[in-house]
# Entry
Amino acid sequence: MSRLLLHGGAVFDGTGAEPRPADVVIEGDRIVDVGTGLDGDDGVDCTGRTILPGLIDSHVHLMIDGLNPRSWLTDPFSLQFYTAVRTMRATLDIGITSVRDAGGADLGVREAQRRGVVPGPRTQISISLLSQTGGHGDPWQASGCVTPIFQPHPGRPTGLADGPDEVRRKVRELLRAGADVIKIATSGGVVSPRDDPRHGHFRGDEVEVAVREAAAAGAFVMSHAIGADGIKTAVRAGVRSIEHGIFLDDEAVDLMLNRGAWLVPTLLAPRGVLEAAAALDPYVVEKARLVVASHQASVTRALEAGVKIAFGTDTGVTKHGRNLEELTLLTDCGLTPAQALRSATQEAARLLGVEEKLGTVEPGKLADLVVVDGDPCRAEVLSDLAARIRQVYQGGVRVSSGPR
# Structure
Protein backbone atom coordinates (compact mmCIF):
# COMPACT_ATOMS: atom_id res chain seq x y z
CA MET A 1 0.00 0.00 0.00
CA SER A 2 1.40 3.41 -0.94
CA ARG A 3 2.37 5.91 1.75
CA LEU A 4 1.31 9.54 1.41
CA LEU A 5 3.65 11.88 3.27
CA LEU A 6 2.53 15.34 4.42
CA HIS A 7 5.86 16.97 5.21
CA GLY A 8 7.55 20.23 6.10
CA GLY A 9 4.75 21.69 8.19
CA ALA A 10 3.53 21.72 11.78
CA VAL A 11 0.90 19.54 13.44
CA PHE A 12 -1.87 20.67 15.77
CA ASP A 13 -2.77 17.28 17.20
CA GLY A 14 -6.19 18.17 18.66
CA THR A 15 -5.24 17.85 22.33
CA GLY A 16 -4.90 21.59 22.84
CA ALA A 17 -1.09 21.57 22.69
CA GLU A 18 0.53 24.20 20.50
CA PRO A 19 1.48 23.11 16.96
CA ARG A 20 4.87 21.42 16.62
CA PRO A 21 7.00 20.61 13.55
CA ALA A 22 6.04 17.14 12.31
CA ASP A 23 5.24 15.05 9.26
CA VAL A 24 2.19 12.80 8.87
CA VAL A 25 2.12 9.53 6.94
CA ILE A 26 -1.15 8.12 5.57
CA GLU A 27 -1.70 4.56 4.34
CA GLY A 28 -5.15 3.76 3.02
CA ASP A 29 -7.69 5.48 5.25
CA ARG A 30 -5.45 5.67 8.36
CA ILE A 31 -2.71 7.76 9.86
CA VAL A 32 0.23 5.40 10.38
CA ASP A 33 2.98 7.70 11.64
CA VAL A 34 3.50 11.20 13.02
CA GLY A 35 6.97 12.61 13.59
CA THR A 36 10.00 14.16 11.91
CA GLY A 37 12.18 12.79 9.13
CA LEU A 38 9.53 10.37 7.86
CA ASP A 39 9.36 9.01 4.32
CA GLY A 40 6.64 8.11 1.87
CA ASP A 41 5.93 7.12 -1.73
CA ASP A 42 4.18 10.39 -2.56
CA GLY A 43 4.71 13.72 -0.85
CA VAL A 44 2.73 16.88 -0.17
CA ASP A 45 4.77 19.93 0.82
CA CYS A 46 3.18 21.60 3.84
CA THR A 47 5.90 24.20 4.46
CA GLY A 48 4.41 27.22 6.24
CA ARG A 49 1.23 25.30 6.94
CA THR A 50 -0.37 23.42 9.83
CA ILE A 51 -2.01 19.99 9.73
CA LEU A 52 -5.09 19.64 11.96
CA PRO A 53 -7.53 16.81 12.65
CA GLY A 54 -10.67 17.02 10.56
CA LEU A 55 -12.98 19.43 12.36
CA ILE A 56 -16.26 18.27 13.92
CA ASP A 57 -19.39 20.41 14.19
CA SER A 58 -21.64 18.95 16.88
CA HIS A 59 -24.78 20.88 15.93
CA VAL A 60 -25.84 21.54 12.34
CA HIS A 61 -28.97 21.35 10.20
CA LEU A 62 -27.93 20.12 6.77
CA MET A 63 -31.44 20.35 5.30
CA ILE A 64 -31.77 24.14 5.57
CA ASP A 65 -29.43 26.92 4.53
CA GLY A 66 -30.51 30.08 6.31
CA LEU A 67 -33.82 31.21 7.79
CA ASN A 68 -36.53 31.81 5.19
CA PRO A 69 -39.95 30.84 6.60
CA ARG A 70 -41.69 31.55 3.29
CA SER A 71 -39.61 28.84 1.64
CA TRP A 72 -40.78 26.31 4.24
CA LEU A 73 -44.29 26.79 2.88
CA THR A 74 -43.59 27.15 -0.84
CA ASP A 75 -40.56 25.02 -1.72
CA PRO A 76 -41.16 21.59 -3.28
CA PHE A 77 -40.82 18.88 -0.66
CA SER A 78 -37.86 17.16 -2.29
CA LEU A 79 -35.83 20.36 -2.76
CA GLN A 80 -34.45 20.02 0.79
CA PHE A 81 -32.52 16.89 -0.19
CA TYR A 82 -30.82 18.69 -3.06
CA THR A 83 -30.12 21.58 -0.70
CA ALA A 84 -28.36 19.09 1.55
CA VAL A 85 -26.03 18.14 -1.31
CA ARG A 86 -24.88 21.76 -1.44
CA THR A 87 -24.64 22.24 2.32
CA MET A 88 -22.68 19.03 2.78
CA ARG A 89 -20.19 20.15 0.13
CA ALA A 90 -19.85 23.59 1.73
CA THR A 91 -19.26 21.97 5.12
CA LEU A 92 -16.54 19.68 3.81
CA ASP A 93 -14.83 22.55 1.99
CA ILE A 94 -14.17 24.38 5.28
CA GLY A 95 -12.49 21.38 6.87
CA ILE A 96 -15.45 19.98 8.78
CA THR A 97 -15.25 16.27 8.08
CA SER A 98 -17.84 15.10 10.65
CA VAL A 99 -21.11 16.55 11.94
CA ARG A 100 -24.00 15.77 14.23
CA ASP A 101 -27.20 16.84 12.51
CA ALA A 102 -29.59 18.26 15.11
CA GLY A 103 -32.78 17.83 13.13
CA GLY A 104 -33.94 17.39 9.54
CA ALA A 105 -31.46 14.96 8.02
CA ASP A 106 -32.82 11.44 7.76
CA LEU A 107 -31.27 8.04 7.16
CA GLY A 108 -31.04 8.65 3.41
CA VAL A 109 -28.85 11.71 3.92
CA ARG A 110 -26.49 9.81 6.21
CA GLU A 111 -26.34 6.85 3.85
CA ALA A 112 -25.78 9.01 0.76
CA GLN A 113 -22.59 10.32 2.34
CA ARG A 114 -21.49 6.97 3.73
CA ARG A 115 -21.93 5.20 0.39
CA GLY A 116 -20.15 7.94 -1.54
CA VAL A 117 -23.24 9.08 -3.45
CA VAL A 118 -22.55 12.68 -2.39
CA PRO A 119 -19.44 14.24 -0.83
CA GLY A 120 -19.91 15.52 2.68
CA PRO A 121 -19.04 15.13 6.33
CA ARG A 122 -19.49 11.89 8.24
CA THR A 123 -22.94 12.40 9.73
CA GLN A 124 -24.74 11.41 12.90
CA ILE A 125 -28.48 12.06 12.69
CA SER A 126 -31.20 12.87 15.21
CA ILE A 127 -33.94 13.08 12.52
CA SER A 128 -36.65 14.96 14.46
CA LEU A 129 -36.76 17.06 17.61
CA LEU A 130 -38.66 15.55 20.52
CA SER A 131 -40.93 18.32 21.82
CA GLN A 132 -43.93 18.74 24.07
CA THR A 133 -47.10 20.28 22.70
CA GLY A 134 -46.54 24.02 22.55
CA GLY A 135 -42.78 23.52 22.71
CA HIS A 136 -39.84 24.32 20.48
CA GLY A 137 -40.75 21.59 18.02
CA ASP A 138 -44.46 22.45 17.77
CA PRO A 139 -45.07 24.49 14.59
CA TRP A 140 -48.66 25.46 15.47
CA GLN A 141 -49.43 29.11 14.69
CA ALA A 142 -52.05 31.33 16.34
CA SER A 143 -53.99 31.22 13.07
CA GLY A 144 -54.40 27.49 13.52
CA CYS A 145 -52.02 26.78 10.65
CA VAL A 146 -49.17 24.33 11.18
CA THR A 147 -45.90 25.36 9.53
CA PRO A 148 -43.12 22.84 10.23
CA ILE A 149 -39.60 23.57 9.05
CA PHE A 150 -39.26 19.88 8.23
CA GLN A 151 -42.40 18.20 6.90
CA PRO A 152 -42.84 14.71 8.37
CA HIS A 153 -42.41 11.76 6.04
CA PRO A 154 -42.08 8.00 6.64
CA GLY A 155 -38.38 8.32 7.45
CA ARG A 156 -38.82 11.50 9.51
CA PRO A 157 -41.70 11.11 11.96
CA THR A 158 -43.03 14.07 13.90
CA GLY A 159 -41.39 14.51 17.29
CA LEU A 160 -44.38 15.78 19.30
CA ALA A 161 -45.06 13.80 22.47
CA ASP A 162 -46.62 14.36 25.90
CA GLY A 163 -46.15 12.11 28.92
CA PRO A 164 -43.67 9.29 29.50
CA ASP A 165 -45.53 6.71 27.41
CA GLU A 166 -45.71 8.92 24.33
CA VAL A 167 -42.07 9.91 24.77
CA ARG A 168 -41.06 6.25 24.98
CA ARG A 169 -42.90 5.40 21.79
CA LYS A 170 -41.53 8.43 19.96
CA VAL A 171 -37.92 7.63 20.92
CA ARG A 172 -38.42 4.09 19.64
CA GLU A 173 -39.85 5.42 16.37
CA LEU A 174 -36.84 7.68 15.87
CA LEU A 175 -34.41 4.88 16.66
CA ARG A 176 -36.25 2.64 14.21
CA ALA A 177 -35.88 5.36 11.58
CA GLY A 178 -32.11 5.31 12.08
CA ALA A 179 -31.39 8.03 14.65
CA ASP A 180 -27.86 7.91 16.06
CA VAL A 181 -28.76 10.38 18.80
CA ILE A 182 -32.05 11.58 20.29
CA LYS A 183 -32.62 15.32 20.51
CA ILE A 184 -35.14 16.63 23.04
CA ALA A 185 -36.25 20.19 23.77
CA THR A 186 -36.35 20.87 27.51
CA SER A 187 -36.97 24.58 27.07
CA GLY A 188 -38.63 26.92 24.65
CA GLY A 189 -36.69 28.25 21.69
CA VAL A 190 -36.11 31.30 19.54
CA VAL A 191 -37.45 30.48 16.07
CA SER A 192 -40.46 28.51 17.37
CA PRO A 193 -43.73 30.49 17.27
CA ARG A 194 -45.50 29.88 20.59
CA ASP A 195 -42.97 29.51 23.41
CA ASP A 196 -40.50 31.38 25.60
CA PRO A 197 -36.86 30.22 25.69
CA ARG A 198 -36.67 30.84 29.44
CA HIS A 199 -39.44 28.35 30.23
CA GLY A 200 -38.72 24.72 31.09
CA HIS A 201 -40.38 22.03 28.93
CA PHE A 202 -41.00 18.36 29.65
CA ARG A 203 -40.98 17.07 33.21
CA GLY A 204 -38.19 15.00 34.67
CA ASP A 205 -39.97 11.66 34.22
CA GLU A 206 -40.46 12.35 30.50
CA VAL A 207 -36.80 13.20 29.94
CA GLU A 208 -35.65 10.23 32.02
CA VAL A 209 -37.68 7.90 29.80
CA ALA A 210 -36.03 9.37 26.70
CA VAL A 211 -32.57 8.86 28.18
CA ARG A 212 -33.33 5.27 29.24
CA GLU A 213 -34.81 4.30 25.88
CA ALA A 214 -31.91 5.84 23.98
CA ALA A 215 -29.37 4.13 26.24
CA ALA A 216 -31.06 0.78 25.68
CA ALA A 217 -30.21 1.19 21.99
CA GLY A 218 -26.68 2.45 22.64
CA ALA A 219 -27.58 6.06 21.87
CA PHE A 220 -27.19 9.35 23.73
CA VAL A 221 -29.58 12.27 24.23
CA MET A 222 -28.77 15.87 23.36
CA SER A 223 -31.00 18.57 24.81
CA HIS A 224 -32.01 21.88 23.30
CA ALA A 225 -32.02 23.81 26.57
CA ILE A 226 -31.86 27.59 26.85
CA GLY A 227 -33.50 28.39 30.19
CA ALA A 228 -31.96 27.32 33.50
CA ASP A 229 -34.93 25.14 34.53
CA GLY A 230 -34.82 23.19 31.28
CA ILE A 231 -31.06 22.79 31.53
CA LYS A 232 -31.30 21.38 35.05
CA THR A 233 -34.14 19.01 34.18
CA ALA A 234 -32.12 17.65 31.27
CA VAL A 235 -28.87 17.22 33.18
CA ARG A 236 -30.56 15.54 36.15
CA ALA A 237 -32.16 13.08 33.74
CA GLY A 238 -28.78 12.15 32.25
CA VAL A 239 -28.57 13.87 28.86
CA ARG A 240 -25.11 13.91 27.33
CA SER A 241 -25.04 17.49 26.10
CA ILE A 242 -26.78 20.80 26.56
CA GLU A 243 -27.29 22.68 23.32
CA HIS A 244 -27.20 26.49 23.64
CA GLY A 245 -27.25 26.78 27.47
CA ILE A 246 -27.92 30.50 27.35
CA PHE A 247 -29.34 31.15 30.82
CA LEU A 248 -27.06 28.97 32.93
CA ASP A 249 -27.10 29.64 36.67
CA ASP A 250 -24.67 28.38 39.32
CA GLU A 251 -26.79 25.34 40.14
CA ALA A 252 -26.99 24.35 36.49
CA VAL A 253 -23.22 24.72 36.08
CA ASP A 254 -22.60 22.59 39.18
CA LEU A 255 -24.94 19.91 37.87
CA MET A 256 -23.17 19.84 34.52
CA LEU A 257 -19.82 19.48 36.25
CA ASN A 258 -21.04 16.72 38.56
CA ARG A 259 -22.78 14.76 35.79
CA GLY A 260 -20.07 15.31 33.15
CA ALA A 261 -22.42 16.93 30.63
CA TRP A 262 -21.02 18.87 27.69
CA LEU A 263 -22.07 22.37 26.64
CA VAL A 264 -22.45 23.02 22.91
CA PRO A 265 -22.76 26.83 22.88
CA THR A 266 -23.89 27.63 19.28
CA LEU A 267 -22.97 31.31 19.77
CA LEU A 268 -23.41 31.97 16.07
CA ALA A 269 -27.07 30.94 15.96
CA PRO A 270 -28.94 33.84 17.62
CA ARG A 271 -26.79 36.28 15.69
CA GLY A 272 -27.96 34.54 12.55
CA VAL A 273 -31.57 35.03 13.62
CA LEU A 274 -30.97 38.77 13.98
CA GLU A 275 -29.34 38.89 10.54
CA ALA A 276 -32.52 37.36 9.08
CA ALA A 277 -34.82 39.66 11.08
CA ALA A 278 -36.59 41.14 8.05
CA ALA A 279 -37.97 37.71 7.11
CA LEU A 280 -39.06 36.72 10.62
CA ASP A 281 -41.93 37.36 13.01
CA PRO A 282 -41.18 40.28 15.38
CA TYR A 283 -41.65 37.95 18.39
CA VAL A 284 -38.86 35.71 17.10
CA VAL A 285 -36.55 38.70 16.67
CA GLU A 286 -37.40 39.89 20.19
CA LYS A 287 -36.45 36.47 21.57
CA ALA A 288 -33.18 36.51 19.64
CA ARG A 289 -32.24 39.87 21.13
CA LEU A 290 -33.04 38.51 24.58
CA VAL A 291 -30.72 35.52 24.26
CA VAL A 292 -27.85 37.34 22.52
CA ALA A 293 -27.62 39.66 25.51
CA SER A 294 -26.90 36.74 27.88
CA HIS A 295 -25.22 34.15 25.68
CA GLN A 296 -21.55 35.12 25.96
CA ALA A 297 -21.70 35.63 29.73
CA SER A 298 -23.32 32.22 30.19
CA VAL A 299 -20.67 30.42 28.14
CA THR A 300 -17.93 32.30 30.01
CA ARG A 301 -19.47 31.19 33.32
CA ALA A 302 -19.42 27.56 32.19
CA LEU A 303 -15.89 27.82 30.85
CA GLU A 304 -14.50 29.36 34.03
CA ALA A 305 -16.12 26.60 36.09
CA GLY A 306 -14.56 23.88 33.95
CA VAL A 307 -17.62 22.61 32.04
CA LYS A 308 -16.64 20.60 28.96
CA ILE A 309 -17.15 22.60 25.77
CA ALA A 310 -17.74 21.03 22.34
CA PHE A 311 -17.86 23.01 19.11
CA GLY A 312 -21.31 23.34 17.57
CA THR A 313 -22.83 26.10 15.49
CA ASP A 314 -26.51 25.48 14.69
CA THR A 315 -25.54 26.17 11.09
CA GLY A 316 -28.59 26.08 8.91
CA VAL A 317 -29.86 29.00 10.96
CA THR A 318 -26.94 30.73 9.22
CA LYS A 319 -25.62 29.77 5.80
CA HIS A 320 -23.42 26.70 5.64
CA GLY A 321 -19.78 27.59 5.19
CA ARG A 322 -19.80 30.16 7.99
CA ASN A 323 -19.38 27.55 10.74
CA LEU A 324 -15.81 28.49 11.65
CA GLU A 325 -16.90 31.96 12.79
CA GLU A 326 -17.92 30.14 15.98
CA LEU A 327 -14.26 29.57 16.85
CA THR A 328 -13.61 33.29 17.24
CA LEU A 329 -16.83 33.71 19.23
CA LEU A 330 -15.56 31.03 21.61
CA THR A 331 -12.31 32.95 22.11
CA ASP A 332 -14.41 36.01 22.95
CA CYS A 333 -15.76 33.94 25.87
CA GLY A 334 -12.27 33.20 27.16
CA LEU A 335 -11.03 30.12 25.31
CA THR A 336 -7.58 30.36 23.79
CA PRO A 337 -7.38 29.62 20.05
CA ALA A 338 -5.87 26.21 20.90
CA GLN A 339 -8.74 25.46 23.30
CA ALA A 340 -11.30 26.55 20.70
CA LEU A 341 -9.71 24.21 18.15
CA ARG A 342 -9.65 21.40 20.70
CA SER A 343 -13.40 21.89 21.20
CA ALA A 344 -13.80 21.22 17.46
CA THR A 345 -11.51 18.18 17.42
CA GLN A 346 -10.79 16.02 20.46
CA GLU A 347 -13.67 17.26 22.63
CA ALA A 348 -16.25 17.06 19.84
CA ALA A 349 -15.08 13.54 19.02
CA ARG A 350 -15.52 12.54 22.66
CA LEU A 351 -19.00 14.03 22.74
CA LEU A 352 -20.01 12.09 19.63
CA GLY A 353 -18.43 8.91 20.98
CA VAL A 354 -15.99 8.61 18.06
CA GLU A 355 -12.76 9.48 19.89
CA GLU A 356 -11.24 6.07 19.07
CA LYS A 357 -11.35 6.94 15.36
CA LEU A 358 -11.36 10.73 15.07
CA GLY A 359 -10.45 13.97 16.80
CA THR A 360 -6.65 13.79 17.05
CA VAL A 361 -3.67 13.37 14.74
CA GLU A 362 -2.08 10.12 15.87
CA PRO A 363 -1.28 6.69 14.44
CA GLY A 364 -4.30 4.44 14.06
CA LYS A 365 -6.85 7.22 13.66
CA LEU A 366 -8.79 7.76 10.45
CA ALA A 367 -6.93 10.14 8.16
CA ASP A 368 -9.42 12.99 8.34
CA LEU A 369 -7.07 15.98 8.15
CA VAL A 370 -7.07 19.67 7.27
CA VAL A 371 -4.07 21.63 6.01
CA VAL A 372 -4.17 25.40 6.59
CA ASP A 373 -1.85 28.30 5.87
CA GLY A 374 -0.12 29.61 9.00
CA ASP A 375 -0.56 28.83 12.68
CA PRO A 376 -4.27 28.52 13.62
CA CYS A 377 -3.38 29.05 17.29
CA ARG A 378 -2.74 32.70 16.44
CA ALA A 379 -5.91 34.79 16.77
CA GLU A 380 -5.48 36.54 13.42
CA VAL A 381 -5.19 33.18 11.65
CA LEU A 382 -8.09 31.60 13.53
CA SER A 383 -10.40 34.49 12.62
CA ASP A 384 -9.70 33.86 8.92
CA LEU A 385 -9.39 30.09 9.09
CA ALA A 386 -11.86 29.11 6.36
CA ALA A 387 -10.02 31.24 3.79
CA ARG A 388 -6.71 29.62 4.77
CA ILE A 389 -7.76 26.02 4.12
CA ARG A 390 -5.69 24.44 1.36
CA GLN A 391 -6.39 20.72 1.62
CA VAL A 392 -9.04 18.56 3.26
CA TYR A 393 -8.58 14.80 3.58
CA GLN A 394 -11.28 12.35 4.57
CA GLY A 395 -10.32 8.74 5.10
CA GLY A 396 -6.97 9.44 3.44
CA VAL A 397 -8.53 10.85 0.27
CA ARG A 398 -8.13 14.48 -0.68
CA VAL A 399 -11.72 15.73 -0.95
CA SER A 400 -11.32 19.51 -1.08
CA SER A 401 -8.87 22.34 -1.64
CA GLY A 402 -10.87 24.79 0.45
CA PRO A 403 -14.00 26.93 -0.02
CA ARG A 404 -15.28 27.37 -3.56
Q: What stands out?
A: DSSP finds 13 helices and 19 strands in the chain.
